[in-house]
Amino acid sequence: MKRLVFFLGIVIPLFSFGQQTDSTKTDIGSITGNFSIIWQSYSEDSLIGAQVPPEKTGFNAWGNLIYTKGKFSAGMRYESYLNPLLGYPGRFKGTGIGYRFARYSDKQFDITIGNFYDQFGSGLIFRSFEERYLGIDNAIDGFRVVLTPIDAVRIKGIYGKQRLDFDDRLINGEGILRAVDAEINLNGLKEKWGEKDLQITLGGSFVSRFQAASQIEKDTLVLEVPNNVASYAARLNVFYKGWTFLGEYVGKINDPNADNGYIYKPGQGFIANIAYTQKGFGFNLQGKLVDNLSFRSDRNLLLFDAPVNFMPSITKVHTYNLAATLYPYATVIDGEVGINAEVFYKFAKDTPIGGKYGTNLTVNFAAANNIDTTGLSGIDRIIDGYQRNGFGFGDSKFVRDFNVEVSKKISKNFKAKYTYYYLEFNTLTTPVTTDFKGIVYADIHVLEFANKLSTHHSLRTEIQALTTKQDKGDWATVLVEYSYSPHWFVSVMDQYNYGNPINDRRVHYLFGTLGYINGANRIAVGYGKRREGIFCVGGVCRAVPASNGFEITITSSF
Q1: Distance between CA atoms of 280 and 257, rounded to whole angstroms?
Q2: pTM score of the predicted model
Q3: Rounded distance, CA 135 to CA 84, Å?
Q4: Is 139 helix (H, G, I), strand (E, B) or coil?
Q5: HSE toward the beta carbon, residue 61, CA cutoff 13 A
Q6: DSSP per residue, 472-525
Q7: Are the C-beta atoms of residues 539 and 311 closer than 8 Å to each other?
Q8: Tell me: the pLDDT tens digits for 494-507?
Q9: How far is Cα 314 from Cα 330, in angstroms, rounded to an integer?
Q10: What is the sign, positive or negative, of the torsion defined by CA atoms of 342, 348, 351, 356?
Q11: What's 281's DSSP letter?
């Protein structure tokens, strides 16, 4: 309550100020927002290991309200976890205000007080973001100032703490973050440079964390932990006709933490991307190295808690059920080197392969290993832990992901797509299963058909098959989705582990959904079984327990 009173004490005078300085206008501003509600029931199902919490239901809900008047805006998010859905952070509980801010912005000056999200460059040095369906929210709570003295130059300054918990209110972590980022578009410095084909943007960042050493750390660690830890980054973006190059380097001074076993070795990270596109053709090459780059606002936390930076996955983000949920790859934060290559080509219309409407082909390959290191001994092991031998691949394979996608419009109302995946996936690196430890070799085939039956009726079908001799064996998934536009849809999905070596575990995970859409409003009711597994977004994953029951979701924006 004190926080809410303090916030309103800031906002209300600002409202009054806006009205008094612009009394000739009758505009009182506008209010926008959105909300989401997810309710789920849980039933016991020993066959799939479904858990049933004491309350037998889960409830996650949130709503945003944003007031805007001219250059001023203010808002808040009300959250409710009564109790949270299984698989979400258990400490997210209760109901209250979890996000609030006030902001003034014009062409050259932008200041935010309260909560905000932001990112420097690729996010390799700093990214504050929310991924609600993963239970991740590391919003900054403090001050942000953005200065744009000229159109070609932008400078950001950030000072604050990170969101960590929610227990009837926002709870911040222990560390204090101080950060600055600057970006210069060289072509914008002179008018005639802006007309050049070659476009160059330079950027640099500095992020520092303050966290005082605890008495336990002073007593147990051999060396003194630094109260202040800094990281720095430089980036370059180049555009020339159809070519694009993006590169960023990040360094971090010694930061003993729970992720690296409290060693004092400095961290490094590098990501580079080169791409070329023209009509009907394009390719993209990406390389990434991460070496001891874990950075948190609290050195003693793990997993999803208080990450300062973000390490994008080197693999392509898959959307089909079997490829996306059985063996999804997550970035290994303590040491990874990887490459990704993708080629796109469109076969023209009225050619043997292109046919009447053309044919699209995409080929992608990604690989990641550990970094090449040599372990140290004695006092060197306590200080640095290991020595990196170069920029090459280490001897431990993390993932190999090769996929080919062919999509074609067969007729005016019928489209088809075929996707093939070949995976080599190390479950010791990304523990997505408890039944197998080692490398899974899997082939996945997916057929998707989209058929517009008439003006209001359409049908989409997916047929998927995964074959492997490891882990739980072979899987199949069938999805049928019928839409009656513009409002209704119904879908049924069956995921079947038909190749499980244990007969009793050859289970059909059948789930059905009925939904209604009206503009920005959507409501869906589902019922069935969901298997235990991993849910990932952009290389960040969380474990999802098996469940059996009803699910209701409501979303709206205004």
Answers
A1: 48
A2: 0.86
A3: 10
A4: coil
A5: 17
A6: T--EEEEEEEEEETTTEEEEEEEEE-TT-SSGGG--EEEEEEEEEEETTEEEEE
A7: yes
A8: 999 999 999 888 99
A9: 9
A10: positive
A11: E
